[in-house]
Amino acid sequence: MKKGFLSILEMLFNSSKKQSSAPFQVASNDITSEPEAFTNVPKYESKKLIPQNIPPVFSNEILIKTGDSYVVTDIETTGLSYRSDPIIEISALKVENGNIVDTYSSLIHCDKPLSRKVTDLTGITDTMLRSCDNTLENVLSEYRIFIGNLPLVGHNINSFDINFINEAYKQVWGIPILNLCIDTLALSRKYLFGPANYKLQTLANYYNISVYKTHRATDDCMTTNELYKIILSKAPNEENLPGRSSIVCKISLNDIDLQIIKLTQKIFSESEHECFTYKKTGAYLIGECHERMFKIKTSGKLGCYIVFSKQYEADILPKISLRTSAATSSDGGGTTRIFLDNIENDFIALSESILRCYEFSKEELLKIVDYGKGYGMAVRNFFASPDRLKL
Which residues touch 235 (CB under 8 Å, ≥6 apart)? Predict the structure, then answer.
Protein backbone atom coordinates (compact mmCIF):
# COMPACT_ATOMS: atom_id res chain seq x y z
CA MET A 1 0.00 0.00 0.00
CA LYS A 2 1.36 3.37 -0.92
CA LYS A 3 2.65 5.81 1.66
CA GLY A 4 0.43 8.60 0.30
CA PHE A 5 -2.71 6.52 0.61
CA LEU A 6 -1.89 5.65 4.23
CA SER A 7 -1.27 9.31 5.03
CA ILE A 8 -4.72 10.20 3.72
CA LEU A 9 -6.29 7.52 5.91
CA GLU A 10 -4.41 8.66 9.00
CA MET A 11 -5.23 12.33 8.51
CA LEU A 12 -8.92 11.68 7.91
CA PHE A 13 -9.14 9.31 10.88
CA ASN A 14 -7.33 11.67 13.23
CA SER A 15 -9.52 14.54 12.06
CA SER A 16 -12.69 12.58 12.80
CA LYS A 17 -11.55 11.72 16.33
CA LYS A 18 -11.28 15.43 17.14
CA GLN A 19 -14.87 16.11 16.12
CA SER A 20 -18.07 15.44 17.98
CA SER A 21 -21.23 15.04 15.93
CA ALA A 22 -20.70 17.52 13.11
CA PRO A 23 -23.24 20.16 12.08
CA PHE A 24 -24.61 19.49 8.68
CA GLN A 25 -27.00 21.58 6.76
CA VAL A 26 -25.06 23.02 3.83
CA ALA A 27 -22.91 20.35 2.53
CA SER A 28 -23.29 22.53 1.29
CA ASN A 29 -7.27 19.45 5.83
CA ASP A 30 -5.44 20.01 3.20
CA ILE A 31 -4.67 16.37 2.43
CA THR A 32 -1.90 15.49 0.02
CA SER A 33 -1.23 12.08 -1.43
CA GLU A 34 1.13 10.47 -3.89
CA PRO A 35 -1.23 8.25 -5.90
CA GLU A 36 -0.62 6.15 -8.94
CA ALA A 37 -0.16 7.87 -12.27
CA PHE A 38 -3.06 10.21 -12.87
CA THR A 39 -3.06 9.21 -16.51
CA ASN A 40 -4.19 5.68 -15.58
CA VAL A 41 -7.48 6.78 -14.05
CA PRO A 42 -10.31 4.55 -15.33
CA LYS A 43 -13.33 6.38 -16.67
CA TYR A 44 -16.26 6.15 -14.28
CA GLU A 45 -19.27 4.35 -15.67
CA SER A 46 -22.45 3.97 -13.67
CA LYS A 47 -25.45 1.82 -14.43
CA LYS A 48 -27.55 4.95 -14.17
CA LEU A 49 -26.73 8.49 -13.10
CA ILE A 50 -27.74 9.26 -9.56
CA PRO A 51 -30.94 11.36 -9.55
CA GLN A 52 -29.82 14.97 -9.60
CA ASN A 53 -31.59 17.68 -7.64
CA ILE A 54 -31.89 21.24 -8.94
CA PRO A 55 -28.45 22.84 -8.36
CA PRO A 56 -28.48 25.08 -5.28
CA VAL A 57 -28.20 28.83 -5.76
CA PHE A 58 -25.57 30.37 -3.50
CA SER A 59 -25.43 33.95 -2.24
CA ASN A 60 -22.63 36.19 -0.98
CA GLU A 61 -23.34 35.31 2.64
CA ILE A 62 -24.49 31.89 3.83
CA LEU A 63 -25.50 31.11 7.40
CA ILE A 64 -24.97 27.45 8.21
CA LYS A 65 -27.33 25.98 10.82
CA THR A 66 -27.88 22.66 12.40
CA GLY A 67 -31.33 21.70 11.24
CA ASP A 68 -34.59 20.63 12.78
CA SER A 69 -34.84 17.79 10.24
CA TYR A 70 -33.30 14.34 10.10
CA VAL A 71 -34.10 10.85 8.85
CA VAL A 72 -34.30 7.77 11.06
CA THR A 73 -33.36 4.66 9.09
CA ASP A 74 -33.09 0.91 9.57
CA ILE A 75 -32.50 -2.14 7.39
CA GLU A 76 -33.07 -5.88 7.46
CA THR A 77 -30.52 -8.20 5.81
CA THR A 78 -29.98 -11.90 5.11
CA GLY A 79 -27.02 -12.00 7.51
CA LEU A 80 -24.23 -10.06 9.20
CA SER A 81 -21.70 -9.66 6.34
CA TYR A 82 -22.20 -6.50 4.29
CA ARG A 83 -20.00 -7.97 1.54
CA SER A 84 -22.05 -11.13 1.00
CA ASP A 85 -25.45 -10.61 2.64
CA PRO A 86 -27.84 -8.33 0.72
CA ILE A 87 -30.34 -5.85 2.14
CA ILE A 88 -33.87 -7.26 2.01
CA GLU A 89 -35.76 -4.32 3.53
CA ILE A 90 -35.00 -0.64 4.06
CA SER A 91 -37.13 1.88 5.91
CA ALA A 92 -36.88 5.54 6.83
CA LEU A 93 -38.83 8.19 8.74
CA LYS A 94 -38.40 11.88 7.95
CA VAL A 95 -38.64 14.06 11.06
CA GLU A 96 -39.17 17.84 11.08
CA ASN A 97 -39.49 19.87 14.27
CA GLY A 98 -39.85 16.66 16.25
CA ASN A 99 -42.72 15.31 14.14
CA ILE A 100 -42.71 12.46 11.62
CA VAL A 101 -43.74 14.05 8.32
CA ASP A 102 -43.05 11.26 5.83
CA THR A 103 -42.15 7.59 5.71
CA TYR A 104 -40.48 5.24 3.26
CA SER A 105 -40.26 1.46 3.38
CA SER A 106 -39.67 -1.27 0.81
CA LEU A 107 -38.78 -4.91 0.55
CA ILE A 108 -36.08 -5.71 -2.03
CA HIS A 109 -36.15 -8.66 -4.41
CA CYS A 110 -33.77 -11.38 -3.27
CA ASP A 111 -33.19 -14.93 -4.53
CA LYS A 112 -30.83 -15.87 -1.70
CA PRO A 113 -32.62 -18.22 0.72
CA LEU A 114 -33.25 -16.79 4.17
CA SER A 115 -32.17 -18.57 7.30
CA ARG A 116 -34.84 -19.78 9.70
CA LYS A 117 -33.50 -17.30 12.24
CA VAL A 118 -34.05 -14.28 9.94
CA THR A 119 -37.59 -15.39 9.07
CA ASP A 120 -38.46 -16.03 12.72
CA LEU A 121 -37.02 -12.66 13.75
CA THR A 122 -38.55 -10.48 11.03
CA GLY A 123 -41.48 -12.39 9.62
CA ILE A 124 -40.02 -11.92 6.13
CA THR A 125 -40.17 -15.07 4.01
CA ASP A 126 -38.44 -16.30 0.85
CA THR A 127 -41.76 -16.12 -0.98
CA MET A 128 -42.22 -12.45 -0.07
CA LEU A 129 -38.79 -11.55 -1.45
CA ARG A 130 -38.90 -13.67 -4.59
CA SER A 131 -42.29 -12.30 -5.56
CA CYS A 132 -41.20 -8.71 -4.88
CA ASP A 133 -40.57 -6.68 -8.06
CA ASN A 134 -38.49 -3.96 -6.35
CA THR A 135 -34.86 -4.20 -7.44
CA LEU A 136 -31.99 -2.86 -5.34
CA GLU A 137 -31.34 -0.09 -7.87
CA ASN A 138 -34.96 1.09 -7.91
CA VAL A 139 -35.29 1.03 -4.15
CA LEU A 140 -32.00 2.86 -3.59
CA SER A 141 -32.98 5.53 -6.11
CA GLU A 142 -36.20 6.17 -4.19
CA TYR A 143 -34.39 5.99 -0.86
CA ARG A 144 -31.72 8.47 -1.91
CA ILE A 145 -34.33 10.97 -3.08
CA PHE A 146 -36.20 10.49 0.21
CA ILE A 147 -33.19 11.10 2.49
CA GLY A 148 -31.57 13.87 0.42
CA ASN A 149 -28.65 15.41 2.29
CA LEU A 150 -30.29 15.02 5.70
CA PRO A 151 -28.38 13.30 8.51
CA LEU A 152 -29.27 9.68 9.18
CA VAL A 153 -30.13 8.54 12.70
CA GLY A 154 -29.98 4.83 13.53
CA HIS A 155 -29.22 2.40 16.34
CA ASN A 156 -25.76 0.92 15.72
CA ILE A 157 -25.83 2.62 12.31
CA ASN A 158 -22.09 3.29 12.22
CA SER A 159 -21.16 -0.35 12.77
CA PHE A 160 -23.93 -2.12 10.87
CA ASP A 161 -26.53 -0.36 8.70
CA ILE A 162 -24.23 2.13 7.00
CA ASN A 163 -21.82 -0.60 5.89
CA PHE A 164 -24.63 -2.40 4.04
CA ILE A 165 -26.05 0.81 2.56
CA ASN A 166 -22.57 1.90 1.55
CA GLU A 167 -21.93 -1.40 -0.22
CA ALA A 168 -25.28 -1.15 -2.01
CA TYR A 169 -24.54 2.42 -3.15
CA LYS A 170 -21.21 1.27 -4.58
CA GLN A 171 -22.84 -1.66 -6.40
CA VAL A 172 -25.37 0.62 -8.07
CA TRP A 173 -23.51 3.91 -8.55
CA GLY A 174 -19.87 3.37 -7.64
CA ILE A 175 -19.86 5.95 -4.83
CA PRO A 176 -20.23 5.78 -1.04
CA ILE A 177 -23.12 7.30 0.88
CA LEU A 178 -21.97 10.60 2.39
CA ASN A 179 -24.78 11.61 4.73
CA LEU A 180 -23.79 12.34 8.30
CA CYS A 181 -24.67 9.41 10.57
CA ILE A 182 -25.88 9.82 14.15
CA ASP A 183 -25.59 6.58 16.11
CA THR A 184 -28.07 6.29 18.98
CA LEU A 185 -26.14 3.31 20.36
CA ALA A 186 -23.00 5.41 20.83
CA LEU A 187 -24.99 8.38 22.17
CA SER A 188 -26.92 6.13 24.58
CA ARG A 189 -23.68 4.83 26.03
CA LYS A 190 -22.51 8.41 26.43
CA TYR A 191 -25.61 10.06 27.92
CA LEU A 192 -28.03 7.42 29.21
CA PHE A 193 -27.27 5.72 32.53
CA GLY A 194 -29.09 2.86 34.22
CA PRO A 195 -30.12 0.30 31.56
CA ALA A 196 -28.68 -3.22 31.90
CA ASN A 197 -27.34 -2.94 28.34
CA TYR A 198 -27.78 -0.71 25.31
CA LYS A 199 -29.73 -2.97 22.97
CA LEU A 200 -32.64 -1.12 21.38
CA GLN A 201 -35.25 -3.36 23.02
CA THR A 202 -33.63 -2.96 26.45
CA LEU A 203 -33.55 0.83 26.14
CA ALA A 204 -37.16 0.88 24.94
CA ASN A 205 -38.26 -1.13 27.96
CA TYR A 206 -36.22 0.99 30.37
CA TYR A 207 -37.66 4.27 29.06
CA ASN A 208 -41.20 2.91 28.51
CA ILE A 209 -41.09 3.42 24.75
CA SER A 210 -44.01 1.70 23.07
CA VAL A 211 -42.74 -0.74 20.46
CA TYR A 212 -44.17 -3.31 18.11
CA LYS A 213 -43.15 -6.90 18.75
CA THR A 214 -42.09 -7.52 15.13
CA HIS A 215 -38.45 -6.95 14.25
CA ARG A 216 -39.15 -5.04 11.05
CA ALA A 217 -37.28 -1.99 9.77
CA THR A 218 -40.13 0.53 10.10
CA ASP A 219 -40.92 -0.60 13.65
CA ASP A 220 -37.29 -0.21 14.66
CA CYS A 221 -37.24 3.27 13.09
CA MET A 222 -40.21 4.30 15.25
CA THR A 223 -38.51 3.00 18.39
CA THR A 224 -35.19 4.62 17.49
CA ASN A 225 -36.85 7.99 16.90
CA GLU A 226 -38.42 7.94 20.37
CA LEU A 227 -35.06 6.95 21.86
CA TYR A 228 -33.34 9.79 19.98
CA LYS A 229 -35.78 12.31 21.45
CA ILE A 230 -34.76 11.12 24.92
CA ILE A 231 -31.09 11.50 23.98
CA LEU A 232 -31.73 15.05 22.71
CA SER A 233 -33.28 15.93 26.07
CA LYS A 234 -30.17 14.76 27.94
CA ALA A 235 -27.25 15.64 25.63
CA PRO A 236 -25.65 19.09 26.04
CA ASN A 237 -26.37 21.77 23.44
CA GLU A 238 -22.72 21.79 22.36
CA GLU A 239 -23.32 18.48 20.57
CA ASN A 240 -25.08 20.35 17.70
CA LEU A 241 -27.21 17.29 17.07
CA PRO A 242 -29.84 17.19 14.31
CA GLY A 243 -33.21 18.08 15.78
CA ARG A 244 -31.89 21.30 17.29
CA SER A 245 -31.65 24.56 15.41
CA SER A 246 -28.66 26.86 15.90
CA ILE A 247 -26.30 28.89 13.73
CA VAL A 248 -22.85 27.28 13.68
CA CYS A 249 -20.92 29.29 11.09
CA LYS A 250 -21.09 31.88 8.32
CA ILE A 251 -19.55 31.63 4.85
CA SER A 252 -18.80 34.78 2.85
CA LEU A 253 -18.40 34.46 -0.92
CA ASN A 254 -17.36 37.16 -3.36
CA ASP A 255 -18.76 37.57 -6.88
CA ILE A 256 -15.92 35.57 -8.47
CA ASP A 257 -16.51 32.73 -5.98
CA LEU A 258 -20.14 32.64 -7.05
CA GLN A 259 -19.19 32.72 -10.73
CA ILE A 260 -16.75 29.82 -10.29
CA ILE A 261 -19.33 27.75 -8.40
CA LYS A 262 -21.92 28.35 -11.12
CA LEU A 263 -19.43 27.35 -13.83
CA THR A 264 -18.53 24.22 -11.86
CA GLN A 265 -22.20 23.29 -11.71
CA LYS A 266 -22.25 23.65 -15.50
CA ILE A 267 -19.17 21.40 -15.88
CA PHE A 268 -20.78 18.70 -13.72
CA SER A 269 -24.30 19.17 -15.09
CA GLU A 270 -24.30 15.80 -16.85
CA SER A 271 -21.90 13.97 -14.55
CA GLU A 272 -22.12 12.42 -11.10
CA HIS A 273 -20.65 14.85 -8.54
CA GLU A 274 -21.92 13.61 -5.19
CA CYS A 275 -18.45 13.70 -3.62
CA PHE A 276 -17.35 17.13 -4.90
CA THR A 277 -17.30 20.06 -2.49
CA TYR A 278 -15.96 23.59 -2.32
CA LYS A 279 -14.47 25.17 0.77
CA LYS A 280 -13.80 28.90 1.16
CA THR A 281 -10.53 29.69 2.95
CA GLY A 282 -9.31 33.28 2.92
CA ALA A 283 -8.81 34.42 -0.68
CA TYR A 284 -9.07 30.86 -2.02
CA LEU A 285 -11.92 28.65 -3.14
CA ILE A 286 -10.76 25.05 -2.69
CA GLY A 287 -12.14 22.17 -4.77
CA GLU A 288 -12.10 18.92 -2.80
CA CYS A 289 -13.27 15.34 -2.87
CA HIS A 290 -11.73 13.63 0.16
CA GLU A 291 -8.56 15.61 -0.62
CA ARG A 292 -7.71 18.92 -2.22
CA MET A 293 -7.81 18.79 -6.01
CA PHE A 294 -7.22 22.46 -6.75
CA LYS A 295 -7.21 25.95 -5.22
CA ILE A 296 -8.58 29.01 -6.99
CA LYS A 297 -7.41 32.48 -5.96
CA THR A 298 -10.51 34.62 -6.37
CA SER A 299 -9.29 37.94 -4.98
CA GLY A 300 -6.04 39.88 -5.04
CA LYS A 301 -4.01 42.13 -7.32
CA LEU A 302 -2.69 39.28 -9.50
CA GLY A 303 -6.17 38.35 -10.68
CA CYS A 304 -7.89 34.99 -10.68
CA TYR A 305 -5.82 31.82 -11.04
CA ILE A 306 -6.05 28.09 -10.28
CA VAL A 307 -3.38 25.80 -8.84
CA PHE A 308 -3.91 22.05 -9.20
CA SER A 309 -2.48 19.75 -6.54
CA LYS A 310 0.92 18.40 -7.47
CA GLN A 311 -0.19 14.82 -8.20
CA TYR A 312 -2.37 16.06 -11.09
CA GLU A 313 -0.02 18.57 -12.70
CA ALA A 314 1.98 16.15 -14.87
CA ASP A 315 -1.18 15.20 -16.73
CA ILE A 316 -2.77 18.67 -16.87
CA LEU A 317 -0.01 21.20 -17.53
CA PRO A 318 1.23 19.89 -20.92
CA LYS A 319 -2.30 20.14 -22.33
CA ILE A 320 -3.15 23.73 -21.49
CA SER A 321 -2.48 26.92 -23.46
CA LEU A 322 -3.44 29.40 -20.74
CA ARG A 323 -1.06 31.90 -19.15
CA THR A 324 0.99 30.42 -16.28
CA SER A 325 3.59 31.37 -13.69
CA ALA A 326 5.34 29.65 -10.80
CA ALA A 327 3.24 29.06 -7.68
CA THR A 328 4.43 30.05 -4.21
CA SER A 329 4.17 28.26 -0.88
CA SER A 330 1.01 30.24 -0.07
CA ASP A 331 -0.73 28.52 -3.01
CA GLY A 332 -0.02 25.15 -1.43
CA GLY A 333 0.32 21.80 -3.13
CA GLY A 334 1.13 22.71 -6.73
CA THR A 335 4.00 24.29 -8.62
CA THR A 336 2.16 26.29 -11.28
CA ARG A 337 -0.46 29.02 -11.34
CA ILE A 338 -2.87 28.84 -14.29
CA PHE A 339 -4.43 32.26 -14.84
CA LEU A 340 -8.10 32.63 -15.67
CA ASP A 341 -7.86 35.94 -17.53
CA ASN A 342 -11.29 35.36 -19.03
CA ILE A 343 -12.86 33.49 -16.14
CA GLU A 344 -15.75 31.87 -17.96
CA ASN A 345 -13.88 30.76 -21.09
CA ASP A 346 -10.66 29.75 -19.35
CA PHE A 347 -12.32 27.82 -16.52
CA ILE A 348 -14.59 25.95 -18.94
CA ALA A 349 -11.46 25.13 -20.98
CA LEU A 350 -10.25 23.19 -17.92
CA SER A 351 -13.45 21.10 -17.75
CA GLU A 352 -11.86 17.82 -18.79
CA SER A 353 -9.00 18.25 -16.33
CA ILE A 354 -11.38 19.03 -13.46
CA LEU A 355 -13.55 16.01 -14.25
CA ARG A 356 -10.51 13.73 -14.39
CA CYS A 357 -9.21 15.07 -11.08
CA TYR A 358 -12.55 14.29 -9.52
CA GLU A 359 -12.78 10.77 -10.93
CA PHE A 360 -9.30 9.92 -9.69
CA SER A 361 -9.91 11.40 -6.25
CA LYS A 362 -13.18 9.49 -5.99
CA GLU A 363 -11.39 6.21 -6.73
CA GLU A 364 -9.07 6.94 -3.78
CA LEU A 365 -12.07 7.86 -1.64
CA LEU A 366 -13.65 4.45 -2.25
CA LYS A 367 -10.45 2.76 -1.07
CA ILE A 368 -10.59 4.78 2.15
CA VAL A 369 -14.22 3.88 2.81
CA ASP A 370 -13.41 0.21 2.22
CA TYR A 371 -10.46 0.35 4.61
CA GLY A 372 -12.57 0.16 7.77
CA LYS A 373 -15.35 1.50 9.92
CA GLY A 374 -13.38 4.34 11.53
CA TYR A 375 -12.21 5.68 8.17
CA GLY A 376 -15.73 5.54 6.73
CA MET A 377 -16.95 7.62 9.67
CA ALA A 378 -14.10 10.06 9.09
CA VAL A 379 -15.11 10.49 5.46
CA ARG A 380 -18.74 11.19 6.38
CA ASN A 381 -17.66 13.69 9.04
CA PHE A 382 -15.42 15.35 6.43
CA PHE A 383 -18.33 15.87 4.04
CA ALA A 384 -20.72 16.88 6.82
CA SER A 385 -18.44 19.69 7.96
CA PRO A 386 -20.56 22.87 7.81
CA ASP A 387 -18.07 24.89 5.76
CA ARG A 388 -18.27 22.57 2.72
CA LEU A 389 -20.49 23.60 -0.16
CA LYS A 390 -21.99 20.89 -2.36
CA LEU A 391 -22.98 21.70 -5.92
Answer: 187, 190, 191, 241
Note the helical H segments in the chain.
3-18, 116-122, 126-130, 136-147, 162-173, 184-191, 200-206, 217-234, 255-267, 310-316, 343-349, 351-371, 373-384
Distance CA(391)–CA(388), nearest Å, equals 10
pTM as predicted: 0.73
Element spanning 2, H or E: none
Domains of the chain: 3-62+254-364 (no CATH), 68-244 (3.30.420.10)
Let me know: does 278 contact 264? Beta carbons within 8 Å.
yes
CA angle 159, 153, 238 (to 5 degrees): 105
What is the pLDDT at residue 271?
Answer: 86
- Calpha distance 194→300 (Å, rounded): 59
- pLDDT higher than 60, residue 53: no
**What is the separation of C-alpha 192 from the centre of its chain, rounded to a whole number of angstroms?**
28
